[in-house]
Amino acid sequence: MIEIGREYIPTPVQQEFHNACLRYPVVIFVGAVGAGKTTALIWQVIDDCLAVRYNRGVLAKQTYEDLEDALLPDLLLELELSKIPYHHYKRRRCLVFPQTGSVVHLLGLGDTIKHLHRTKGMNLGFVAIDQIEDVPREVVIFQLTRLRLPNVPANRRHLFATANPVPEDHWLYEFVYGDPDRGIPPAVKSYVVRATLDDNPHLPEDYKNLLTQSLSDEEKERYVRGEFGFLPYGNRVFPMFDKNLHVFPVEFDEKYPLIIGMDFGYRHPAAVWVQVVSEPEDEAVRKVIVLDEYFGKDLLLDDFIGIVKERTSAYYPKAEIVFWCGDPFSAAQKTSYGEAIQETLRIKHNIPLRTRRVPVDQSVNNVAGLLRQRRLLVHPKCKILIKALQGGYRRDEYGEIVKDGFYDHIVDALRYALDVFAPFGSIHSIVPALNRAFRLKRVLGQFRPT
Description:
The protein is an alpha/beta fold. The chain folds into two domains: 12-223, P-loop containing nucleotide triphosphate hydrolases (Rossmann fold, 3-Layer(aba) Sandwich); 243-444, 2-Layer Sandwich (Nucleotidyltransferase, domain 5), CATH 3.30.420.280. The protein has helices at residues 12-21, 37-51, 64-81, 137-144, 171-177, 205-214, 217-223, 243-246, 301-315, 336-348, 360-372, 383-392, 407-421, 431-437, 439-444, and strands at residues 26-31, 56-61, 87-89, 94-97, 102-108, 126-129, 158-163, 190-195, 235-236, 258-263, 270-279, 282-295, 322-325, 353-354, 376-378, 394-395. The chain has an eight-stranded mixed beta sheet. The N and C termini lie far apart (60 Å).
């Protein structure tokens, strides 16, 4: 780093961030509150402007007001203390470094897509975004198309940003890590720097003690240890859910049928693989186990069903009997929606859909009853379902269940399966009935995934 006047001595994790900025086109500095992320971002901007003549870049937050109130004063203070010459043109919202002729545009990228072209027409050498998690994905992607200032060396044309830890369902997580379970690669070649509260030796000790003593375990994961993760908020639908009691590495048992619960839709179709473990002579062993989940994105019904069938064949090849459960409204032949679903499932994929029409509150109580009895166990790899049960699936201030467009889909997939095979929160043995009533269909292979 260039040192003029006051010496900037980066911490090891800040130095990691600066080194990564010269090696990767996208660098995200994720960390706990107070980990030194903003200071590192500011000095990377200064370094880019002083190291390259006639550089041109953007320093941004979600809104210009946020930048003016929080980030800009920190930047100006660093420049003043370091005695670095600059000109601040408030009306033009930019900083100019007379030594090199470099310009930094101060922008609010906006919280809606209408601000997508705020940098339209600009050729940039760098884009620096503070708290990138607040900016829409489409706006961030558009900034990457601006990194084409020809006089800037390739290793200096980059986007770097700070971020507070986000849940794993946030677009930023998929942007930098992808989703291996769904075959989604990272959006770009990027580098993520992770920082905890302990990585900043300049913080007062009483500040660290205050956070560690006053925060919940989930809050400590994000705000102290800087981990990506889920932070429950609002009114939980399933307050009785406890990871220590209900999350367990359950295994498929081939002597029991495999049940697939599905919630159809284009944006986020969801599926869960469930087994009802129940012996007539031993009530103590009765339980429902959730073996796996699938959470799609922007999938047509044909594609979704194809993925679920392939996953079933690959993961559960010894499943003799497979039941498919889904939204009861999809079985309504009188609606165009129901007819389309039925045609795809029954005619194209040979899937007889089992449904049971149950009021939502009663269906939710079915799940809650199994949780209270500790008869519902979820495999640890069902990350989205676990977060939904932890609090992602919630109620509003009026007690109504929130259709958030994300967690409700995975819970609905589970509800549809349990409404059929564990109604009223009770578990009944289905194996004897299957042996008697469905022997012929099992021989004919009608229940096996095609």
